[in-house]
Amino acid sequence: MNPTCPETAALQDSLSEPPLGDILSPEFLSHILGAIYDAALDEAGWVTCLESIRKIMGANYASLIVRTETTDDIGLIVSAGNDQPNLDPGNPYIAMSPFTGMKPDQLVSMGDVLSEKDWRASTYYRDYCKPQGVFYVLAADIATRNGGVYGFRVTRAETSPDFSRADRDFCSLLIPHIKRALNLHLSINQDRKVSTLYSHAMAQLMVGVVVLDQDGLVIECNPAANAILDLKDGLRVAGKQLEASYANDNRKLQGLVRDALIHPHASRLALTQAISVSRPSGKLSWGLIVQSISSDQWTEGKQRPSVAVFVRDTEGKVDPPVRLAQQLFHLTPAETALAIQLANGLSLEEAAEVLNIKRNTARAHLRSIFSKTGVRRQTELVRIFLNSVAWLSAGD
């Protein structure tokens, strides 16, 4: 959990149950809305946010039901309260709550849902709320744009005063902001997942991506780029600059980077250029593409992504998971092993030797592979195998 910012900590320490005028003051609203939107950027911040709401409301609990328990999911409640864990997974009582199926984004109290007699007689109150010291409840189900519903709850003990009209007004004021923060968090989290998938796919294809800032300094590398740089074979990062080992290659590389930085808004044809970079090991050269990244008008900061350098290992070997290759081409394990060796550039005789099988056996496997894949030449087999999606998987 992120540490509470000094301003919020000072605010919470001074809070009991301030008058509505104080709650609605610019200072109070600034602090509480800041806590809500901080939580949108980091989910650990929801505990801090809920604790602020709890203290401002003079409540014993403030909670966010992230997921209700189902047969496939144990559910999750994030809460701030007296001597209770902040995360409560797998709570079976949530399904018993009378605060379910409510109209989205509207705040209700216990009295709006049940009479006091029915509330006291309910299993949910007797078995769950009463032992927790919960009697008065304000509740809202907040619908997000991805179809999800989050339960927002603020509670007080029976010995405390019931929630006033002013309390309800304040909570109603917060709900649209909590909804926006939840939607923002979902968007950020989705972007992170998509970026991770892109990075994974590029790494599996052995395409390295090095991102440079407006000064040409390295600010990010994907896993494939890190693997290539770790080889120290023709490319390196020195003083936060991407450099080629040989002076002539390095002059070309730095020139392309400068061009990309000088012309960030050039046409697509002009802003993408390619070179090959020799490797001291004597292996095939790295293939590099340098492309400028056009920033939008709102982008600012000390390190703005400005140039992308794509690096391809032209000598990289295909190593797809055998199981997926079998599924794609309906091959046996032995046929798949042979196809992988052929895709990596070996002749039939060389592949047979690597696999420790007889040449006649290899030829028999190859005939079967041709029959199952519908190709007639070894070059066609290599092409379809290299273009398959099998090697995008992380492994068996």
Describe the structure.
The chain is an alpha+beta fold and 396 residues long. The protein has three domains: 6-191, Beta-Lactamase; 205-312, PAS domain (Beta-Lactamase), CATH 3.30.450.20; 322-392, Arc Repressor Mutant, subunit A (Orthogonal Bundle), CATH 1.10.10.10. Helices cover 45% and strands 18% of the residues. The protein is built from 16 helices and 13 strands. It has helices at 6-13, 20-23, 26-41, 45-57, 110-113, 116-121, 123-129, 165-204, 223-230, 247-262, 268-271, 322-329, 333-343, 348-355, 359-373, 378-386; strands spanning 61-67, 76-81, 87-89, 108-109, 136-143, 149-156, 207-212, 218-221, 235-238, 241-244, 272-277, 286-292, 307-312. The chain has a six-stranded antiparallel sheet with strand order 3-2-1-6-5-4. The chain has a five-stranded antiparallel sheet with strand order 8-7-13-12-11. The protein has a two-stranded antiparallel ribbon with strand order 9-10. Strand 1 (61-67) and strand 2 (76-81) form a beta hairpin. Helix 3 (26-41) packs parallel to helix 8, helix 13 (333-343) crosses helix 14 and helix 13 (333-343) crosses helix 16. It is elongated and about 85 Å long. It starts with 5 loop residues before the first helix and ends in a 10-residue tail after the last helix. Residues 1-17 and 266-270 have low confidence and may be disordered.
